[in-house]
Amino acid sequence: MADDKLQDDDLVKAHLRNHERLAGERAPYESTWREIDERVDPEGQGAFGGGKTDGVRSERNFDVTASEGLERFQAAMASITVPRATQYIRLKFADENLNKQMSVRRWCERTADRLYAIRYAGHTGFETQAGADFRQLGKYGTGLIWTGVRPGVGLFYKALHLSECYIDEDYAGMVDTVQRKYERDVRQIEQEFGRDALTPKMRKAFDGNKLNERFQLLHIVCPNGDLQPGAMDRRGMPVDSITIAVDEKMVLRRKGFRSMPIATSRHVTGPCDKYGRSPAVKVLPSIRGLNTMKRTILRAAHKQADPALAFYDDDGITSIVTRPGGANPGLVDESGRVLVARMPGGDGNLPIGMEMIEQDRQVVRTAFLEDYFKLLTDEKVQRSAQAVLEIAAKQGVLVAPYAGRYETEKQNPMTQRDLELSMMAGQIEPFPPEVTEAGAYPMIEYDNPLNRMARSQEAAGLTRLIETLTPMAQSDPSVFDVINTDEAATGVADVLGVRPSWLRSRDEIAAVRKKRAEDEAVAAGVDQLATVASAYQDIAKGNQIAEAI
Description:
Strand 4 and strand 5 form a beta hairpin. It is flat, with a radius of gyration of 35 Å. It has a five-stranded antiparallel β-sheet with strand order 4-5-6-7-8. A three-stranded antiparallel β-sheet has the order 3-2-9. It is built from 16 helices and twelve strands. The protein is of the alpha+beta class.
């Protein structure tokens, strides 16, 4: 039986009232999301209609540009934000003095590598769930990923479908509350919460072997409004979690989290919007127009290929054979004139129609990052390093808003939670003594292509400066003295994603330069001795000549 100590009728009523408010706020978006499912992702239909579909999916779609665009969007976003082949997680500290110490930098590198390995372990399902999350960003503009720990297995990720979720923001516009309303059969509920947590109706169904009987649950994750610092249980944790059986209005479980377990991101938001606006929402008029125009073009082409026929007189004509080689007696008069002709009106201007379709297709492709996808996959064009930096800089101007929002709302809180859970499990090595002494905690940064595009302007600016100064250096080489080459080299390496362990520390650089100076001094000494010896030899020869004279 459900634990009586957990029951709080006033708390349950308050959460249910809040759920009604959040459901009312989400309701105006749902009709648009249903249409997007139909037009853009037919396989996802039914989620906003209680899981029911209207027969065959996509039967009313005549153009697949948006569906293909969603696939490109998913692939492009994965490639430029969480690329599987690139270690994109970076750690640093707010104290720059700590970041300059090589022991700290290398701890950050090893820890980031460990976090990356944990994230992409086979049991976590990160790649699959991240793909589902990107699809939701492309369709609805809002995506949610739940990060948790499966007992005996470890870290896992789960993309939550927006049809189950309702969100709320804090005073700064960040999502701090997620309510998830979903159904499970009693067998699954017993597996997740345990038999002792079952409500009376659930217990009756379970004991009666009605294991497929379904119940509606409401899981709420929100700030702990009664935080008690120092408490060792859920009361001392900043994030509250409560699961309610909706039908019986009873609490199944209540616990707490040290960090938000559900990370929510929005593609872009408008004024006063809680839910994001997606590429599909942005170009929905073009998607509608494409389907209408494509249907019209198909009808016109069908008329041209199989036109309607006009008869002078159908007396005696019972049927017409239109197959190749078919015989149609009686369709010509005594003079050989054909008595049947095409109906006028079937010669529509198909080229203009196709041109209009292609224009709208380009609008849809651009919205779904088709241009970025081509840039990422284009291996035929060979470009110089400077050209690559320039192109990346231009792309970075356009993608910077997506980079900032995705990092702030999704990747940063999710990776911070990964770090917290990994440290609790003892999977991360202890802080270096310098960090412990400073009482510092690492921050998360990202070195993915999307972030690199947004920062590549810095490296491109340096290369342009060097190109500009090069002609001047022919007459005055000192012009390059303005460039701090040590800092510039380190900065460019950071922008280009060079690993810290591949770079020398300041002490190592000083040692290399000292050794070089010593070697040059020795070489200069040898050259000087050789010069002196040659001079003495010349003097000796001169003396010999003088004596001979």
